[in-house]
Amino acid sequence: MSLILDNVSYVYSQGNAYEKKALDGINLKIEDGEFIGIIGHTGSGKSTLIQHLNGLLKATDGKIYFDGEDIYDKDYELRDLRMQVGMVFQYPEHQLFDETVFKDVCFGPRNQGLPEKDVQLRGYEALKNVGLNEKYFDVSPFELSGGQKRRAAIAGVIAMKPRVLILDEPTAGLDPRGKDEILDMIAANHQRYGNTVILVSHSMEDVAKYVDRIIVMDDGKIKYDDEPREVFKYYKELEKIGLAAPQVTYLMNDLRENGYPVSTDVTTVDEAKSAILKLFKIQT
Amino acid sequence: MLREITLGQYYPVDSVIHKMDPRTKLFATVIYILSIFCFRGPIGFVAITAGLIAVIYLSKVPFSFMVRGLKAIVFILVFAGILNLFMTPGRELISIWKFTVTYEGAKSASLMLFRMIYLIIGTSVMTLTTTPNQLTDGLETALKPFAKIKVPVHEIAMMMSIALRFIPILVEETDKIMKAQMARGADFESGGIIKKVKSMVPLLVPLFVSAFRRANDLALAMEARCYHGGEGRTKMIPLHYEHRDKVAYVVVIVYIVLIFILRKFA
Q1: pLDDT 10s digit of each residue in chain A, 284 long?
Q2: Which residue of B has its CA nearest to A98?
Q3: Chain A, 178-237: which have a CB under 8 Å from a chain B CB?
Q4: What φ, ψ does residue A180 adopt, rounded to 5°?
């Protein structure tokens, strides 16, 4: 039960002046239940990559297997795949269309062909899960605030209960608090349902706290693919490709260079705090 | 998915035609269009074809790109061609069952097909070698004299350039929203006509919302930069004629004379 990408390449506008290679020989295996972060600079191919995972873009070269089945097979129903692999695009609030928030969230489950009762149950559950207050269920989605719209749009995908949930920059354009709330909500859902979650971002800071695996993209290729703490060891190389490790990585490395024997192996502020406290308890 | 639209799309290569002043190209295009509607006889046809081939060759744009614009009007071409072929009275050429093809019909059908195809290809050369901005710039300067009789030339040009600028944005936006709704299981292809129209709602509503939002943002941005219309406005890149434009004008004039002579004597 997994997603496998076998030597996938993708070229935009093949054969004319606008030709551009966006993906170059990607090999990837994503297991069930993983929480993955895909990181890359603008134009590194991360958005292109995820659009392959649910068959919205067809690779110019290479194969993709979902549950061991070739998704480019003639008999394969891409629509079914899209029900299994849910995708939240960048600025998902731009896709809201229905009269009420609740109806909009029910759009996905209804397309799945579920009985009306289940559709509504799913919609209700999803809206609860994204933490949207019940009083907004019956208002027009265009009347909500930016953060609320974002939640409603994410609920629209969660309501389909996809086994793999892909989110492309779900926190873009939100304030720090809204950012944390959205990410906490995604992490809580991952805990609750144990589904695979793929989080696309250009900020290590956002991702480091939540994911168990980071895939770094650069120029259409996978540069690193490992646990966060392992990836952050390459913080100098990351800077060269326009990315940065979390601030705590820099702090711990600076401390170490200045003669404090702390572990540089931390990824979050909390871990850093306990590492530093530990050091001082030993010294004083 | 929707990246196939070429009518009015610039093809970036470096050629003499690309570098030419847009006014020259506009003038030449108008003359060309007039010529395909008033030529006579096979010699005129050869002259026009030769001119078109020469310009296409100089533009360095792949020929397949110009033909792509034809795809959109294939149906009209076939329909009009058939009507002309069978409905024109005159001398009988071939008769199949109840339908007769007349000599005059064949002539007017082929003439019409030729004119439509050449019209599309010729104007494609223009749009493929000129950026939308240059095009409206050229139009604005060429239509300047009409401003004297209170024609809002600058406003028209501004509206045109905004409209042209928005085409690729809206195409991209459509593509994005389509993908987002497809990811939610929307189906834009199957079903009868009513189901298809209904399935467009999740696409059209967000598209209109975003178009209005963009229009609003743009208006604000223009206002913030103190835009107040065309009066006293200078250009960042003023148009001016180069040597190649003079050459082009001479060529176009020779072309007019040639077509005129051929029309008189052919």
Answers
A1: 688 999 999 998 776 666 788 899 999 999 999 999 999 888 888 989 999 998 888 999 999 999 888 999 888 888 888 889 999 999 998 889 999 999 999 999 999 999 999 999 999 999 998 989 999 999 999 999 888 999 999 999 999 999 999 999 998 888 888 888 889 999 999 999 899 999 998 878 778 888 999 999 998 999 999 998 888 888 888 888 888 888 888 888 888 888 888 887 788 888 888 888 888 876 55
A2: B202
A3: none
A4: -60, -40
Residues of B whose CB is below 8 A from A162 = none
Both tokens of A284, joined, read 């004083």
**Per-domain residue ranges of chain A:** 2-228
Q: How far apart are CA B219 and CA B225, in angstroms?
A: 10
Length of chain A: 284
Nearest to B180 among A16, A89, A112 (CB): A89
**Architecture of the structural domain at A2-228:** 3-Layer(aba) Sandwich (3.40)
Residue A87: both structure tokens together: 């995708």
All residues of chain A having their beta carbon less than 8 Å from the beta carbon of residue B202 are 95, 97-98, 107
Measure in Å the smallest separation between the Cα of B263 and chain A Cα atoms: 40
Flag if A94 and B210 touch (Cβ within 8 Å). Answer: yes
Rg, Å, chain A Cα set: 21
Give residue B107's identity as a one-letter amino acid code: K
The residue extents of the domains of chain B are: 1-130+239-266, 132-233
Give the bridge partners for A199, in sequence order.
A37, A167
Helix A116-129 / helix A176-193 crossing angle, nearest 10 deg: 130
Q: What is the 3-state secondary structure (H, E, C) of B58-69?
A: HHCCCHHHHHHH
Torsion sign over Cα B26, B28, B33, B38: positive
DSSP A130-168: TT--GGGTTS-GGGS-HHHHHHHHHHHHHTT--SEEEEE
Nearest to B185 among A13, A97, A111 (CB): A111
Other C-beta atoms closer than 10 Å to the C-beta of B116 total 17
For residue A256, the SS3 value is: helix
This complex has an ipTM of 0.85
**Distance from C-alpha of A165 to C-alpha of A138, rounded to nearest angstrom:** 26
B44: three-class secondary structure by DSSP: helix
Provide CB contacts within 8 A for A94, sequence distance 6+. Answer: B176, B177, B180, B206, B209, B210
Q: Is B193 left (phi over 0), alpha (psi -120 to 50) or beta?
A: alpha
Q: How many Å apart are CA A147 and CA A141, to the nearest integer?
A: 11
Nearest C-alpha neighbor of A68 from the set A6, A115, A23, A9: A6
Closest listed residue to residue B160, CA positions, set B191, B136, B183:
B136
In single-letter form, the type of residue at position B68 comes to: R
The total of other beta-carbon atoms located within 10 Å of residue B51's CB is 20
**Rounded to a whole number, what is the largest CA-CA distance in chain B?**
70
